[in-house]
Every structure is written in structure tokens, then in C-alpha cells.
Amino acid sequence: ARAGDEHVFHSVLDLAEVMPGSSVGIGEATIRFGNAVHPVPAIVTRIDTPDGSIAYSGDTGPGSDLAQLAAGADLLLCEATIPGVRERHTYPYHLTAAEAGRIASEAGVSSLVITHLAYGADPDQAVSEAAAEFDGEIRLAAPGTTFTIGETT
Fold first, then answer.
1. Which residue in 5, 88, 122, 139 is a FRET match for 116, CA 20 to 30 A apart?
2. Do the Cβ atoms of 122 and 114 come closer than 8 Å?
3. At 6, phi and psi to the nearest 5?
4. Any residues with CB less than 8 A from the CB of 26 and at least 6 apart, and which?
5. What is the DSSP letter of 19?
6. How many Å separate Cα 152 from the centre of its chain?
């Protein structure tokens, strides 16, 4: 946030820099971080609680720590910004829906929620592309939708 020492953030928040490979505990939750592939510093995240686990891609391209970090998670919330198939000239710092599905499959997650679709992308097509790579439950993140580990509403 680049907030100086006198900024109100410091009286409200306990800010700590995290890096890939680090973890923090908050109550009964453990939050772990991995490397993302993005042109600015970014991380992939996993939260484990006694009730279950969720992994989150943030913005990342192929080659991140996401599959390893998400291994066995109950839910993977994963960006699927790039429509269609990746080609040589495709922007390298975001994922396709098929790549999101492949990561979910490699990680062995229970369910996949795809998010961060490009403006104008067909959500049904994105779900279909993810489903070609992942046999589990796939949902689309949408405003007002909530997800509970183990079930979606």
C-alpha cells in the first residue's frame, strides 16, 4: 500500500509482507503462499482450517506454484481470464479456463470455481473448457454467490 508509518492503516491493520513459501496463522487458520507468474509481484494462496481448505490463484500465468499449493484442497478459486486455447503469442500472465481445469485436476481438488473471465467472454464456454480438463464440480464465480467449503450456494 506504500503507506508511510503515520498512515491510519498502521493503527487499524497489522501489516506483514509475505513471500512465496511463507505462512501465517490467524486463529485456527493457516495461510500459505506460493509463487505466481505475473509481471508485478503476486502470490497464490491457500487457507487451511479445521473445517477444510481453499486455494486461490490470484492473477497468474502457467508455471506458478498453484497446483502444488492447492493439492487436495476442498475448493480452488482460479482465474480463467484468457478465452480459448493458449498459443505462442498469448499473454503469459493469466490462465485459460482449460488451464484452470488442468491445475484443478493435477491438484486433486474437490471443486473448482472459475473467476476473472475476460470482458465479453462466454461463461458457459469457459466452464465447458475447464470441464474438458477437470471431472469434478465446476462453478462460475458471480456477484452475490457464496461458497462454503464442501458445498456451494
1. 88
2. no
3. -90, -5
4. none
5. -
6. 16
Tell me the C-alpha distance between 153 and 90, whole Å: 34
Supply the DSSP symbol for 35: E
Contact present, 77 and 46 (Cβ < 8 Å): no
Q: Which helix (H) or strand (E) segment is 52 a member of? A: strand 52-56
pLDDT of 1: 59
Cell 462453478, residue located: 139
Q: What is the mean pLDDT of residues 82-109?
A: 97
Place of cell 471431472: 135
Phi, psi dihedrals of residue 78, rounded to the nearest 5°: -135, 135
Cell of 140: 462460475
pLDDT at site 119: 93
Among 1-5, 20-24, 56-60, whose mean pLDDT is lowest? 1-5
Q: How many CB atoms sit inside 10 A of residue 13's CB?
A: 11
**98: pLDDT confidence band, cut at 50, 70 and 90?**
very high
Alpha carbon 39 to chain centroid distance? 17
The answer for residues whose C-beta is within 8 angstroms of residue 146's C-beta and 6 or more apart is 152, 153
